[in-house]
Amino acid sequence: xxxxxxxxxxxxxxxxxxxxxxxxxxxxxxxxxxxxxxxxxxxxxxxxxxxxxxxxxxxxxxxxxxxxxxxxxxxxxxxxxxxxxxxxxxxxxxxxxxxxxxxxxxxxxxxxxxxxxxxxxxxxxxxxxxxxxxxxxxxxxxxxxxxxxxxxxxxxxxxxxxxxxxxxxxxxxxxxxxxxxxxxxxxxxxxxxxxxxxxxxxxxxxxxxxxxxxxxxxxxxxxxxxxxxxxxxxxxxxxxxxxxxxxxxxxxxxxxxxxxxxxxxxxxxxxxxxxxxxxxxxxxxxxxxxxxxxxxxxxxxxxxxxxxxxxxxxxxxxxxxxxxxxxxxxxxxxxxxxxxxxxxxxxxxxxxxxxxxxxxxxxxxxxxxxxxxxxxxxxxxxxxxxxxxxxxxxxxxxxxxxxxxxxxxxxxxxxxxxxxxxxxxxxxxxxxxxxxxxxxxxxxxxxxxxxxxxxxxxxxxxxxxxxxxxxxxxxxxxxxxxxxxxxxxxxxxxxxxxxxxxxxxxxxxxxxxxxxxxxxxxxxxxxxxxxxxxxxxxxxxxxxxxxxxxxxxxxxxxxxxxxxxxxxxxxxxxxxxxxxxxxxxxxxxxxxxxxxxxxxxxxxxxxxxxxxxxxxxx
Length: 618
Prior knowledge:
By secondary structure, this protein is of the alpha+beta class. It contains 14 helices and 23 strands. Strands 1, 2, 3, 4, 5, 6 and 7 form a 7-stranded antiparallel beta sheet that branches. Strands 8, 9, 10, 11, 12, 13 and 14 form a 7-stranded antiparallel beta sheet that branches. Strands 15, 16, 17, 18, 19, 20 and 21 form a 7-stranded antiparallel beta sheet that branches. Helix 9 packs antiparallel against helix 10 (484-497). The relative contact order is 0.05.
């Protein structure tokens, strides 16, 4: 056999951690049942370990030298070496114990009793046809190579050998868009196809555009990683990348993962899609915005038409300033916020959004048609994490509340009423968890909460939502019926809505509960009377001669006869937000409304609901 001076030596298995099944198999190794003779020394000092793929040639002989089987072509084999993964592949016991003792390039002879090869009780490896499983045999092994591999499929049909580590933790997955360099080779090194020049090969993960096993291996790679992915015939599915796969037992794909774009299907139905164009800073999802974070973004909105019409750009339409909004405050379309919540600081993403998550349920810009699909290009500049008020003292809580309230006041003065309202409502939500400990704290807390509700009412008033302004005032008056400021603000809202009797009742109530408010209440009543006189005067003019028509003639009542705003009396100054609970503000000019709406508010809502812009009176 050409063995060296070490000749045949009794093999003593090393103790190592293993499963109970492996331990049970090792009990079959009795003294003299496995012997090793070194034929040719290997190189280096490293030996195979569990998790390594071992590549070796094997020739099996009887003790008198008759070849039973071999992988070598000179002995009748195909010339293809055997590939196993130690600790994973099903192997005869003698090789399980013998190969880990070898060096790379080493040739050794293992003499095995039947119980160490195919004669083992419950042997996990099928016995080759005609094999002398009851005989003591020699196994000549040449260890060609071994290296660490990652097992991709449990049946070992897909394995990966890492050449160069990548960067980051993230790997491609469905439906990510992937760019890579790739070469496919047979086991003997023959190149089948190669894509290593020009532009990297591009495919969408999960669309069966590459063989199944290759995609499985790529799904374990990091950006910039280089690896060899070993794919057996079971996982060599046909694809646009490789139309012909028949006739190959295994293909080695040499892959360099150049880049991949994170694509998220936010709804799971392919309608709301977020594509990451530029990576952000940090680790996903730990460094993404939390609920109630203050977000700072630049974004550009485009219609999904042929021209990609831009309908809004913060860098153009917001004086170059980014947009700041609180997460969960409903200040941007739902689809936009959903995607920003999954972004990292510095990330740029392209979001394709259906109408029901864009502007069909949100204030639609004038140049965005109803039912429009849109696309946003979003850059998350940064965000401020919400401060946890848990455990703070009452004083600290009120200080934090004042900071947010002051921000709301600033936004109000800037005319950003929706943003201001969101700030006030944020504090009110936090107040749901505040429990004052004594009467003094209770009074401070009540005054602050009432002030916030009235600020919300002022925002609604400015936004033209009088009914919601009245509801906000009611939240104060339900607990404090004599609250002068709330009575005044509700009276103004009633007057704007055309409910003159309710407004008059609130202004008179102000005088009853607080004589010091009489000047303001009197001024408000005068303004109310002036409004009523204007309505009466215009009503007479509008309906003059209306009932003088002959039977069958029609008199039209339309936009031309409705009350128009008076530019001389229109107040263009921003209403000041509540700063002092003891001083109600002066009466502001209410937005004029049409005569028909004033005479019959219910009818106005009725005709509006029907979609009638004009009405005809017979």
